[in-house]
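User: Can you recover a sequence for this backbone? Please restate the input before giving your answer.

Assistant: Of course. Working from this structure:
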């Protein structure tokens, strides 16, 4: 078993963002361990991209596309009356994040997933220190409601178009609690069981009403059913770890990484 692996997910539309993040990870982040870029067979790397991938020692891992036929038939037949940005139809590649929980990744002990386009400002070593201070059966991720902690993620699911499905979901899990983003995930690979990815796909089809695609379903599973999610510490060893963007008067360089800058 290897010790550490950083995972990104990208199709051809986001390869340049992914490569920029990987370059920052290798240089600014001072990370020399394994990196895996998940993509699909339909995404074609240009020769120049192949050269960059080789120079940055990145493993390309392709998976079969997750079967979204049932989900898309449902949504196209009865469109969401409330939507974030139509991503349930236009950003379906986000479902490839479910592959992060494929048993392929059990060959490493610790997994750090980061979105393509992530901005890195400091060494990423503290993330590995953080996960070693938690139980093996914990998924760490940034609270989606930080710093307000609204304790409600009902709005991540379409209620108006599918009241019966929503009611079934609400009967299954508590939706009136804090929840996490899937922009970054940190965990011990012990949480990956033989059934984990298939379980996620099962709930994707059972509740095809997630307005945030994989984020809603990952919360249903890891937060509501398995109850293994814990908020990533926002401050560790005298530095800010991660936030969706820099807050208040803080410059981005106060953080190890941010998704966006303000």
């Amino acid at each position: 078993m290897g010790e550490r692996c950083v995972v990104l997910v990208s199709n051809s539309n986001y390869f340049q963002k992914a490569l920029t993040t990987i370059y920052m990870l290798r240089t600014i982040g001072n990370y020399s361990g394994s990196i895996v870029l998940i993509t699909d067979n339909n995404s074609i790397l240009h020769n120049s991209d192949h050269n960059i991938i080789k120079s940055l020692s990145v493993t390309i891992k392709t998976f079969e596309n997750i079967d979204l036929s049932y989900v898309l038939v449902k949504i196209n037949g009865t469109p969401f009356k409330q939507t974030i940005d139509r991503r349930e139809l236009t950003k379906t590649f986000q479902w490839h994040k479910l592959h992060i929980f494929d048993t392929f990744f059990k060959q490493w002990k610790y997994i750090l997933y980061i979105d393509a386009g992530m901005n890195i400002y400091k060494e990423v070593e503290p993330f590995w220190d953080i996960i070693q201070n938690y139980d093996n059966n914990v998924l760490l991720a940034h609270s989606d409601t930080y710093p307000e902690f609204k304790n409600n993620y009902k709005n991540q699911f379409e209620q108006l178009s599918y009241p019966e499905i929503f009611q079934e979901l609400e009967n299954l899990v508590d939706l009136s609690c804090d929840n996490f983003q899937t922009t970054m995930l940190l965990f011990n690979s012990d949480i990956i069981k033989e059934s984990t990815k298939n379980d996620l796909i099962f709930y994707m089809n059972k509740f095809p009403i997630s307005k945030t695609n994989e984020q809603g379903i990952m919360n249903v599973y890891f937060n509501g059913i398995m109850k293994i999610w814990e908020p990533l510490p926002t401050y560790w060893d005298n530095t800010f770890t991660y936030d969706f963007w820099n807050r208040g008067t803080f410059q981005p360089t106060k953080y190890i990484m941010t998704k966006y800058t303000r």
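That completes the design. Helices lie at 15-26, 47-55, 69-77, 87-90, 125-131, 163-172, 196-206, 214-225.
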